[in-house]
Amino acid sequence: MPRIEKRPIDPNIPRSTLSTKEVAHYLGVSVDTVLKWTKAENLPVLRIGHKHLYKIQAVDQWFENKTRYVEPTLDAKESYGKLRVINP
Question: What does pTM read for this prediction?
Fold first, then answer.
């Protein structure tokens, strides 16, 4: 069976979806992590057969909802070399 070649994407046409590999690159994680998040963390996906398409806006919204902002407790210089007690 001959292999079907992908057509180049026209940069003049705005895209609203990304492939799994593109989402991984976009978020800076591996493809396996994107697939894991799709199954376990409810990352929104459109499945067409075996192909996964992710809406960019949905990925951004999902990521913002999952993001937690943590206030630093001590400056790095202040905490260097000091013992810290970890409460169970």
Answer: 0.63
Q: Any idea what the Cα angle at residue 39 is, between residues 7 and 8, rounded to 5°?
A: 5
Establish how many alpha carbons lie within 13 A of residue 52's alpha carbon, considering only the half-sphere containing its beta carbon: 20
Which pLDDT tens digit goes with each residue over 5-45? Answer: 656 666 677 788 999 999 999 999 999 999 999 999 889 99
Decide if 53 is inside a domain: yes
Q: Which DSSP string corresponds to 52-78? A: EEEEHHHHHHHHHHH------SS-HHH
* Domain of residue 42, residue span: 19-69
Residue 76 in domain: no
Tell which residue, 54, 27, 30, has the closest CA to residue 43.
54
